[in-house]
Amino acid sequence: MKASALFGAGWEDDSHLDLATVIKVSEAVSGEIVLEKLIDALMRAAIEHAGAERGLLILPRGDDYRIEAEATTSGDTVNVVLRQAGITDADLPSTVFQQVLRTKESVLLHDASGQNPFAADEYVRGHHAQSVLCLPLLKQIRIVGVLYLENSLTPHVFTPARMAILRLLASQAATSLENTRLYGDLQEREARVRRLVDSNIVGVLIWDLDGRILEANDAFLDMLQYRREDLVSGGVRWTDLTPAESRERDERATADLKSTGTVRPYEKEFLRKDGSRVPVLIGAALCDARGNESVAFALDLSQQKHADAEVRALKDRLYRENLALRDEVKECFTFEEIVGSSPTLKTACSRIRRVAPTDSTVFISGETGTGKELIARAVHTRSQRAGRAFVSVNCAALAPTLISSELFGHERGAFTGATQRRLGRFELADGGTIFLDEVGELLPETQVALLRVLQEREFERVGGAQTIRVDVRVITATNRDLGAAAANGSFRQDLFYRLNVFPIEVPPLRERQEDILLLVEYYVHRYATRMGKSIRSIDKKTLNLLQAYAWPGNIRELQNVIERSVILSSGEVFAIDESWLPKQSVRLRPPVAALTPAQGTPRSERETIEAMLAECRGRVGGSSGAASKLGVPPSTLDHRIKALNISKAQFKFR
Ligand SMILES: Nc1ncnc2c1ncn2[C@@H]1O[C@H](COP(=O)(O)OP(=O)(O)OP(=O)(O)O)[C@@H](O)[C@H]1O
Ligand SMILES: [Mg+2]
After folding, report:
1. Which of 51, 186, 327, 441 sits most deeply, having the most CB atoms within 10 A of its CB?
2. What is the DSSP string of 126-148?
3. Residue 514 Cα, ligand 2 centroid: separation in angstroms?
4. What does the DSSP 8-state code read for residue 55?
5. CATH domain 509-580 topology
6. What span, in angstroms and rounded, lies between the C-alpha atoms of 444 and 434?
7. Among 25-39, 419-433, 559-573, 578-592, which is the least confidently predicted range?
8. Which has the minimum average pLDDT: 79-88, 156-165, 614-623?
9. How far is 558 from 369, CA to CA, in rounded Å?
10. Is 420 in a helix, a strand, or coil?
11. Residue 17 is inside which H or E element, if any?
């Protein structure tokens, strides 16, 4: 302390310094960095060595000052209390204190009650203070505290020797107070960081550039499933936690750390103790002066990655579903005439799409009128053979004696009436597709020939010796349970297996009710356009009727009903007559069984057909036609009529 203001007169100069005291005072305050202990030591030393009776330590707090501690004496004992209170006029002469703050110099009053600039101070007057000393504790030019000492009994207690000690004490205390403050700040900062580390929100670890792990918090240990001892013992090194492919990235990070002191966060993976991986976001900073130790944080990204992956999978799935949906929509509506959106029909459509481009033999089964031929055509249209012939043969409609010649052709003179060579359907279909409808009706010898074509792709014309090779795709259809027929021996098993390579089952209409409305709209529009009518809506009752009906004749029957209704309709509303739909919709009998009685001869088949034609006045199609009454497709009946050479016309006007 260089300057001090001295007020009052005549003090004794006993200013020789006692070395032991100096050391004691110095030691008392210099080693303390805990504020409370420092304050206690400081106040005691001040009182003991200054001859003061009461003392205050005032410390800055924000922009203000407050009394941190008060020391009082009683006999030989010194009591130090931490007051931590604001300063009032009752605590000290405020004019003295203000001057110290202003001038940063100490104020010493040897006899405060005597003549001096502070004599008028309320405190001085009220407390009759005798010796007063107010000493700033300065660190450079900054006031880090103020020590106030007084003795209200004796004037001149602060002798030069005591002052010398007090100055020493003040300077020592200023340094210690500053250190304490710095230490306090440091502790607070450290506590803040500690709170973050201990909160275990992120993994924190301290490591050195040689690869050792010096410290890790619980979050980091949990993340990697290691025990603290595993890591900090040096047994597991920092680099051991990193999969080989991430090492290069880590090396770049270490280079950054060396050159800039920090590593910006980046994503990597750590290896857990069990070898599994955990994705993390990691960042680091050098944390020692030598630039060898670093503190890093690691944020577990597993959940986020998992969520990301789920979102991605969901997107993929949606995308795939969209594609599938688009495919299905395309399938059901780009197969031109295949109308419907029911799941069962969609399944059939997707099977068509799959098998079409291959050359596989396709076996279509389903009740009459369900669209088997439509599907066979779709398979052809969708195949590479689309540009070539699609030859359809209704096996049930061919006379058994003619069927071989129909399928394989004949040479001139092969049989009576074979006046010239004729190519069979297989030859016509060369390069394309042959569709054998009602394949279950083939006679045994034709079954053998067909088997050979399927196996060897070759045959001879009837009456010919030359082997003919063809490249034909075979599609067959039946409305019979051919599997059962093969099992009970009424159909060749080996042929059945040759045909049943890729089965497509066409569901009956009653099992795909959701298609009814679509089909109704489709056919109403089609027939109305054809007949130049405008039908805009469907009668609700009609729709209910159509949906409730079992449709034994399936789509063909629906088509007929709609056609009839459109013919009869005069307004814009589509409606049907309930009587058009038979009350009891019995399932249809297999077509040929209907035409051919058990001990069937062509004659009795002819009789059956003729009788029915007579009943229906020669009409084959439609719900009042012979086909519907016999429970067979009109095409089949037509073929049989032609094969048996029956004239429909003769029944027309009977
Ligand atoms: N999904 C559909 N969409 C539109 N029309 C269809 C559909 N299915 C069938 N049809 C139509 O129904 C009628 C009967 O179809 P198809 O001749 O293909 O049936 P089938 O199963 O071969 O019958 P059968 O066993 O009696 O020969 C055809 O006019 C066909 O166009
Ligand atoms: Mg058919």
Report:
1. 441
2. HHT--EEEEEEEEETTEEEEEEE
3. 23
4. E
5. Helicase, Ruva Protein; domain 3 (1.10.8)
6. 19
7. 578-592
8. 614-623
9. 9
10. coil
11. none
* Residue 412 exposure: Cα atoms within 13 Å on the Cβ side: 3
Maximum alpha-carbon separation in the chain: 167
Yes or no: domain 200-300 corresponds to CATH 3.30.450.20: yes
The pTM of this model reads 0.46
What does the block give as tokens for 327? 């495919």
Closest by CA to 288, choosing from 260, 261, 265, is: 261
For 330, residues 6+ apart whose C-beta sits below 8 A from its C-beta are none
The rounded distance, in Å, linking the Cα atoms of 213 and 589 is 85
Q: What is the pLDDT of residue 326?
A: 44
What is the CATH superfamily name and number for domain 4-184?
GAF domain (3.30.450.40)
What is the percent of the chain where pLDDT is above 90? 34
Distance CA 231, CA 213 (A): 6
> In sequence order, which ranges of 9-93 are alpha helices (DSSP H)?
19-30, 35-50
Question: Residue 303: its pLDDT value, please?
Answer: 87
Element (H, E) at 391: strand 390-394
Q: Where are the domains of the chain?
A: 4-184, 200-300, 335-505, 509-580, 591-652
Please say if the pLDDT value at position 12 is more than 60: no
Residue 508: DSSP 8-state: P
Low-confidence winner among 45-59, 229-243, 261-275, 546-560 (lowest mean pLDDT): 229-243
Mean per-residue pLDDT over the chain, rounded: 84
Residue 355: its pLDDT value, please?
Answer: 95
Ligand 1 mean position, distance from CA 252 (Å): 70
Both tokens assigned to 19: 């070395």
Q: Looking at residue 98, what is its pLDDT?
A: 95
Other beta carbons within 10 angstroms of residue 394's beta carbon come to 22
Average pLDDT score over residue span 400-405: 84
| Contact between 508 and 544 (Cβ < 8 Å) | no
User: In percent, how much of the chain has pLDDT > 70?
Assistant: 90
pLDDT at 77 over 70: yes
Q: Cα dist. 131→3, 106, 118, 234, 362 in Å?
A: 18, 13, 12, 65, 122
Question: Quick one: which of 531, 425, 440, 543 has its CA closest to 483?
Answer: 440
Return the ligand 1 atom nearest residue 345 CA.
1
Least confident of 170-184, 263-277, 639-653: 639-653
CATH number of 335-505: 3.40.50.300
- Quick check: CB of 554 below 6 Å from ligand 1? no
CA distance 407 to 395: 9
Task: Give the closest residue (by CA) to ligand 1 atom 23.
Answer: 369
Residue 224 has pLDDT above 60, yes or no: yes
pLDDT at 584: 55
Q: Return d(Cα 230, Cα 224) in angstroms, integer.
A: 11
The yes-or-no answer to whether 4-184 and 200-300 have a common fold is yes
Mean pLDDT of 26-50: 82
Of 347, 364, 368, 370, best ligand 1 pocket probe by most atoms within 8 Å of the beta carbon: 370
Measured between alpha carbons, how far is 56 from 70 in angstroms, rounded to an integer? 5
Query: Which residue's alpha carbon is at the smallest distance from atom 9 of ligand 1?
Result: 371
Q: Which ligand ends up closest to the CA of 340?
A: 1
User: Can you tell me the distance from the alpha carbon of 133 to that of 46, in angstroms, rounded to the nearest whole number?
Assistant: 11
Question: Closest ligand to 364 CA?
Answer: 1
Residues 338 and 329: their CA atoms lie apart, in Å, by 11
CA pair distance 379, 336, nearest whole angstrom: 12
- Return d(Cα 368, Cα 281) in angstroms, integer: 66
- Check residue 401 and give its pLDDT: 79
Q: Does ligand 1 have an atom closer than 6 angstroms to the CB of 637? A: no
